[in-house]
Structures are given as structure tokens and as C-alpha cells.
Amino acid sequence: MFFVRLYGGSFISTFPDISLDRVNLHGIDNLCFPNLELNPHAPVVPGAPGLFFECERVSGERFVRRVFTPWKGDHTWGYMGNYEFIPVASLSPEEYSMQQETVKRHWAKNVLFRAWGLQTFARVYLRRELGREPTPKELADHSTLPERKRIEKLVSIEEIIDAYANGHEQIGIYCMKCIDYDKDWHSFLCKTYPTFLKDEAERREKGSKPRKKGTRHKLADGNQ
Q1: Domain segments of the chain as ranges
Q2: Which InterPro entries match (predicted)?
Q3: CA 6/CA 22 separation, integer angstroms
Q4: For residue range 48-85, what is the model confidence (pLDDT) as tens digits?
Q5: Is 42 within 8 Å of 158 (Cβ atoms)?
Q6: Which range (65-69, 107-111, 144-148, 178-182) has the least confidence?
């Protein structure tokens, strides 16, 4: 919630979508919060290199993000630095087989239930039903939330894992290279965070106080 209050966006998004109005105020629109359950090779030491996974093969241009990852065993996220994300070759079936079983299952579950996994989910389903690769139109027709809702129970986590294991699907990879560490910005965050904690504690305390009898009516009467 600290970054949501400070910069906007969503606290559950890997790449928060910050409104243009907020960006115009503070100039920050490149935050990144890799989940270690899905990205076990993301950096956990500032400046260290890492890998960022996607549910399918990646391509396109490089981009830069201010990266935060959770400290192991804690819910606190630490600033790793400003990283360039560089598209590289996807995981091979052999490399996929070397990943921890928990990582494979986390990816399969997210493909099944997250919006960004729609096309991968649809390909796995259609490949089984049709006995071939789906056409672009067939894939588009099945890559919608209502259609997935209709057929989601027909695809298992094991099927998703098998699709990656046999190479029908690929885990895409960005190589993460630290190109800068903004010490002044990090110092600003460290100085701002205690104030945020204090404000949050006060807000919770006010919210937990029982409402006095008749308060709601008095306030309503006063606003008439």
C-alpha cells in the first residue's frame, strides 16, 4: 500500500498501471514488483543480475524498470536497482524440467486463473480438443474471460505443466541487468516510509474505534 499511496497504481500488479495524472505529478511510471513464486531467479541482492519469466515466448524491445523484490521470509520489499529487461531465448523443455515443482504449479495455476494467461490456457485446451494447433481465429474466439469461465474446469493444472514440459508452450525469459541504482530516490523512500507507517497506524486506530450512539444521525442532521 505504501507505493499505491505514494505513486498510484495497484498493489497486486507486477507492473503497476499508474494514471497519467499521477505520473505528471511525480514522474514515476516504471515500477516493477516480481513475485518470487513466479520468478525464482529475480534478483534478491541489489545490483545482482536476474531472470524474469513470462507465460509465453517474449520478443520486442528492451525496457527499464525500478525493481523491488520481497526479502525472503518477510513481507517487506527491497529496492534492487533500475534494471534493463532484455528478451532472450525461452526455457527449453530440459530447462523447464529443472525448475522447482512449486514454481511449475504456481505458473500453471496463474495461467488457469489470471487474465494474462488466457491465450496460453486456450491453446492448451484447443490443442487437446482439435488434435492440432488452433488457428488465430479459433484462438481469439476462446481467449476471452466468458469463454474461459465456461471451460476452465475442463483443463487441469497437470495439463498446463505437461504443455510446458513437452515444449508445446514455452516460459519466456527477460534477462535482468542492473544499469543504475538511484540512491537519492531510495533515500527519499526510506525517509518517507516511517511517516506512512505512522499514518496507517493512526488510520487503523480511528477505524477501529466504536462509533458513539447517535453519531451517524447527528452527522446526517448537520448536513441537511
Answers
A1: 1-90+171-203, 91-170
A2: DUF6697
A3: 9
A4: 999 999 999 998 899 999 999 997 656 788 999 999 99
A5: no
A6: 144-148
Beta pairing, strands 77-88 & 31-32: unpaired
Task: Take residue 31 and report the three cell numbers written for it.
Answer: 515500477
Cell numbers of 135, please?
Answer: 488457428
* The pTM of the whole model exceeds 0.90: no
Alpha helices in 17-156 (DSSP H): 20-26, 93-97, 101-113, 118-130, 136-142, 145-151
Instruction: Give the separation between CA 9 and CA 197, rounded to whole angstroms.
Output: 19
